[in-house]
Design a protein that fits this description.
Radius of gyration of chain B: 25 Å
Largest interface: A-B, 60 and 57 residues
Number of helices of chain B: 13
Oligomer: heterodimer
Shape of chain B: elongated
CATH architecture of the largest domain in chain A: 3-Layer(aba) Sandwich
Distance between the termini of chain B: 85 Å
CATH topology of the largest domain in chain B: Rossmann fold
Number of strands of chain A: 28
Radius of gyration of chain A: 27 Å
CATH superfamily of the largest domain in chain A: P-loop containing nucleotide triphosphate hydrolases
Distance between the termini of chain A: 78 Å
Number of strands of chain B: 23
CATH class of the largest domain in chain B: Alpha Beta
Number of helices of chain A: 14
Shape of chain A: globular
CATH architecture of the largest domain in chain B: 3-Layer(aba) Sandwich
Largest sheet of chain A: 10 strands, mixed
Strand content of chain B: 15-25%
Structural class of chain B: alpha/beta
Strand content of chain A: 25-35%
Structural class of chain A: alpha+beta
Number of domains of chain B: 3
Largest sheet of chain B: 10 strands, mixed
CATH class of the largest domain in chain A: Alpha Beta
Helix content of chain A: 25-40%
Chain lengths: ~575, ~425
């Protein structure tokens, strides 16, 4: 195939205009040849015979007349065994390897192989003569904890392909041919363990999409009980700076019961990625006993890296997620932050001189965000196994104001909203998820009716607190004061969780159920105390007992003993149970 | 490459266009006597941003392309020198031309970063004790015009234990510039200081070059194993200069007239802060003035999302509540065993004092406990919070214990018994 070539005719920021002869596709990848370097770019518009390309690198030094090579391929990632534990930039460049090659700084125009060149033990799953379609498994290799399926490329078109030959069980290089396919007309296709997949096309090689009805356990009480997330669902975490978005996401990445976790650090601080990089290899996954990094992939396009690659990074992450979903795994994708991703779109849109929408974001912001979150989902694969992608995105609204376009566009398409509040984080109430403004459409780990009743107390308690600010404690009836204290208790001992305490940081669902039952009972009890000082000291005492309970290790004698103590503590003052 | 063009086609704001071929994007040129850089190429039309501004540029002024990007000279000879935003000396010293380095270089590979864990001592208790500054941290001082933020920076520059100080001044009043220079000279710190100063009367474009210039130099010092502290004041002026240029270039504004890439602009500068394994480090301390004391204004807002905390300077004091150093956990466990506990206890009590003040202003009765808090609050403010207090961390901790002992009984502080036994000042125990 002839390489289609072009020439640069203009450059403005990271947008290049290119004249070309021959045929090019929208969104295909091209390289600008500058001073011996090849700078990657993507065609994002073709108008009046000239192509506009967004360049994924710094554009300094490009001249009018510089040569451009088009590849004919859409912006893609490589998929194959060996992706886990790696750290990539937004274009799937492995950063540690890049550091070995180029030193401290990110040199532009250097693209390294994302799949480690390594041998794997291949076990075939098909025989010559079997008919296959895109997404079918032709064999497996063991990758860390998982049986990694080697699949027919998702982009293979047609359903008349049969296996012509397949390698026997044995050790092969990742790039060597392991199978050959043939279609009815005699075309053949060689398959290795690696194939490419365009990042902006959702993978649909599954039987059907299912309703996300199973909770994804995060071991964070506030989320699992009050604002649950479902496997295959979506959630968003908007919050002003300093409210603890990233800390919350790191906790979710650490403690969630997903098989694979993909962290997309999109336009955020590099220091935060370093924390994951240095911390995760040391931490143990309680489910498997292996290091946490073995189930993690990090896509890292920090705020100082080129903007166009930031736009790609979220798509790169979700494509990798889809790949592992095809293997029957539950994948959790955490994107931090989708606002930076949206801003990257805004920058590009501005350069293209498109008519701006609200706050200069492009008019297609809503549909692009919706399309991204829609790539989450729980599916039944062709072999009957159930797999899912859960997407959680943080949003960094300007000025902490949730009315801005990105938050609003996100809220329309997600199933759970964990809004962080500055007020709560200022008073050191972590996780700073606002219990009343936030919502979830999914089913949690405890009885939802009881949760609703507990929430009602919380709402009433807040109202009483507002009132008390005006009339003072003296003007509040002792019934109301008890409700207020109940709300405070619920907040202090259940919604708040100390992520620095190794025991309290991780609360398994069974424990949440047990503790919630006790708390619920305590909240529903009537107390015959009328003196406010006494009420306060009673609830303080109860709170202390609860907090001590959180500090005990689950299912130890201490845990049960402290549980008893809590029950005794509130039952001693309880009168009759409320209806 | 030394061809001279003498036909300027358009002059709009600070941007001029000429027809030329073979020009590289980002290169610099001379327009008349001023530097200019290429900001747009469209076929043979080259748009140049003139550093000294478009005022007085003639359509027949010579335009000469230099065939290189914007560079700054780097060597130890920089120390003690003062330059303007275009890199020209303004201290009557000789021009430096050796070992030119490109400014605004590529970003640091995140895989090569290390977790910061070295404290920078400043001698200011509100920083050292309550919101410790950490090497390689990027931290802005959020403030309002009129607050003594430049004095604060100058003091930190004088007292911080670093090898090299780089001061990037943007839109500085000339008086402020002189004050900085005099303070550093008097304090004997000028010999390890480099200053890039853009004063309020200088052309806008030069303002936008100051951070890049300062950080490019800082990067080289850091690679050479030096611990560098970069002071940038005031980043709001930098953002405003970016805004002015974006609007001249007819870019679609996003929020209050600021360009859509304000976040990226600020981030690419702040993210230069780094601790290099086996070499030096760059710590960035910036000033962001908040127009109208509004933290949701686009500049402080975007800054807050980028930096690792902030210091709130209000009423001449660093506020303990709004201020936050995200990295303090990395270091304050290894300073002294009572550091964290004492810090938390004192802040909690100070918060109680604030509540008590509110109560008093609403006319509620003051209890005995309230009186104690009032006394504590006043002592805390005058002995620790006051910016003129200048003591090392250990003394500040001891002072903290003394203040507590003067106001409270040990069991009122919420501190662990073991710690109280060890640290509670003796004289009080006898009394």
């Amino acid at each position: 195939m002839d390489i289609i070539k072009g020439k640069v005719t203009g450059i403005n920021g990271n947008l290049a205009s290119v004249s070309f002869t021959g045929s090019i596709r929208k969104n295909e990848v091209g390289y600008i040849l500058v001073e011996g370097k090849r700078l990657k770019g993507e065609v994002i518009r073709v108008s009046s015979g000239s192509a506009s390309m967004q360049i994924y690198e710094m554009t300094n030094g490009i001249k009018v007349g510089d040569e451009v090579e088009f590849t004919g391929e859409l912006m893609s990632v490589e998929l194959g065994p060996g992706l886990l534990t790696q750290v990539f930039d937004g274009l799937q460049n492995p950063l540690p390897k890049l550091a070995e090659k180029c030193g401290f700084f990110l040199e532009r125009g250097v693209y390294l192989d994302p799949i480690p060149n390594k041998d794997w033990e291949f076990t075939p799953a098909v025989q010559p003569g079997d008919s296959v379609v895109a997404g079918d498994t032709i064999g497996t290799v063991p990758e860390g904890l998982f049986t990694h399926r080697i699949m027919v490329p998702f982009t293979l078109k047609g359903n008349d392909w049969t296996v012509k030959s397949v390698k026997e069980k044995g050790v092969y290089n990742v790039r060597s041919t392991v199978a050959v396919l043939e279609d009815r007309t005699g075309n053949t296709k060689e398959l290795s363990m690696v194939f490419t997949q365009p990042i902006k096309e959702p993978v649909k090689c599954y039987e059907e999409r299912l309703h996300p009805d199973e909770p994804l356990i995060t071991k964070i009480r506030c989320i699992d009980t009050f604002l649950p997330v479902a496997k295959g669902g979506t959630f968003c975490v908007p919050g002003p700076f300093g409210a603890g978005k990233t800390v919350l996401q790191h906790l979710e990445a650490k403690n969630s019961e997903a098989d694979v976790v993909i962290v997309a650090a999109c336009g955020e601080r590099a220091g935060e990625v370093v924390e994951i990089l240095k911390e995760f290899p040391e931490l143990e996954d309680p489910k498997t006993g292996r290091s946490l990094i073995e189930r993690t992939i990090i896509i890292c396009n920090t705020s100082s890296m080129p903007v166009a690659a930031r736009e790609a990074s979220c798509y790169t992450a979700v494509t990798l997620a889809e790949y592992y979903r095809q293997m029957g795994l539950d994948v959790l994708l955490l994107a931090d932050s989708t606002s930076r991703w949206a801003q990257a779109m805004r920058e590009m849109s501005g350069r293209l001189e498109e008519i701006p929408g609200e706050e200069a974001f492009p008019a297609y912001l809503d549909s692009t965000i919706a399309a991204f979150y829609e790539r989450a989902g729980k599916v039944r694969l062709k072999d009957g196994s159930i797999a899912s992608i859960t997407i959680g995105g943080t949003v960094s609204p300007a000025g902490g104001n949730f009315e801005e376009p990105v938050t609003q566009a996100t809220l329309k398409v997600v199933g759970a909203f964990h809004g962080l509040s500055r007020e709560r984080s200022d008073s050191r109430k972590y996780p700073a998820i606002h219990p009343m403004e936030s919502w979830s459409k999914y089913k949690g780990v405890v009885d939802m009716d009881k949760v609703e009743r507990a929430r009602a107390i919380l709402i009433r308690s807040t109202e009483i607190n507002q009132m008390m600010k005006v009339v003072g404690e003296e003007g509040t009836s002792s019934e109301d004061y008890i409700v207020y204290q109940k709300g405070e208790l619920l907040d202090a001992v259940y919604l708040q969780q100390n992520s620095f305490d190794p025991v309290d940081a991780v609360s398994v669902p069974e424990r949440q159920r047990e503790e919630f039952e006790v708390l619920y009972d305590a909240l529903m009890c009537k107390y015959d105390i009328s003196d406010k000082k006494e009420i306060r000291s009673f609830f303080n005492q109860l709170r202390q007992e609860f907090l001590d309970w959180h500090g005990t290790i689950y299912k130890t004698p201490e845990y049960y003993a402290q549980g008893e103590k809590v029950s005794e503590s509130y039952k001693s003052r309880a009168a009759v149970k409320e209806a | 490459m030394q061809k001279v063009y003498t036909k300027i086609e358009s002059i709009v704001g600070n941007v001029v266009t000429v027809r030329s071929e073979g020009v590289r994007y980002g290169d610099i040129a001379m327009v008349g006597d001023s530097f200019a850089n290429v900001i747009k190429l469209d076929k043979d039309i080259v748009s140049l941003q003139v550093f000294a501004g478009g005022q007085g540029v003639s359509t027949t002024d010579p335009v000469k392309f230099l065939g290189r990007p914007m560079m700054v000279s780097f060597s130890d000879a920089l120390l003690g020198r003062i330059f303007n935003g275009a890199g020209v000396p303004i201290d009557k010293g000789p021009e430096l031309t050796g070992n030119m380095i490109t400014i605004g270089g590529p970003s640091f590979n995140p895989a090569r970063r290390i977790v910061p864990k070295k404290m920078i001592r400043t001698g200011i208790p509100m920083i050292d004790m309550f919101n410790t500054l950490v090497e390689s941290q990027k931290l802005p001082v959020f403030s309002v015009s009129g607050e003594p933020y430049n004095q604060l920076l100058a003091r930190i520059a004088l007292q911080a234990e670093v090898d090299v100080i780089i001061l990037g001044g943007m839109g500085l009043k000339y008086d402020d510039y002189l004050e900085f220079r005099n303070t550093l000279e008097k304090g004997g710190a000028m010999s390890h200081t480099v200053m890039f100063v853009h004063t309020a009367s200088d052309p806008t474009v030069e303002c936008t070059l100051v951070p890049d210039m300062s950080l490019a130099v800082a990067e080289q010092f850091a690679l050479a194993g030096k611990r560098v502290l970069v002071l940038l004041t005031d980043m709001t002026n930098f953002a405003n200069a970016q805004k002015e240029m974006a609007i001249t270039m007819e870019q679609v504004p996003s929020n209050r007239g600021y360009p859509g890439d304000l976040y990226s602009c600020l981030a690419s500068r702040y993210e230069k802060a780094v601790d290099i394994e086996g070499a030096g480090s760059i710590t960035i301390l910036g000033v962001t003035t908040m127009p109208g004391d509004d933290v949701t204004h686009p500049v402080p807002d975007n800054t807050g999302y980028i930096t690792e905390g902030q210091y709130y300077l209000k009423g001449g004091r660093i506020e303990p509540f709004g201020s936050l150093s995200r990295l303090k956990q990395n270091v304050n466990s290894s300073t002294r065993d009572d550091h964290r506990a004492l810090m938390d206890a004192m802040i909690k009590l100070y918060a109680a004092y604030k509540e008590c003040m509110e109560k008093r202003s609403m006319g509620f009765l003051m209890t005995e406990w309230d009186e104690k808090l009032l006394k504590y609050g006043e002592l805390f403010e005058s002995r620790l919070m006051d910016l003129s207090v200048n003591i090392p961390l250990e003394e500040a901790l001891d002072l903290g214990w003394e203040i507590l002992a003067e106001c409270f009984e040990p069991n009122e502080t919420g501190l662990k018994t073991a710690l109280i036994k060890e640290r509670w000042p003796k004289k009080d125990a006898i009394a």
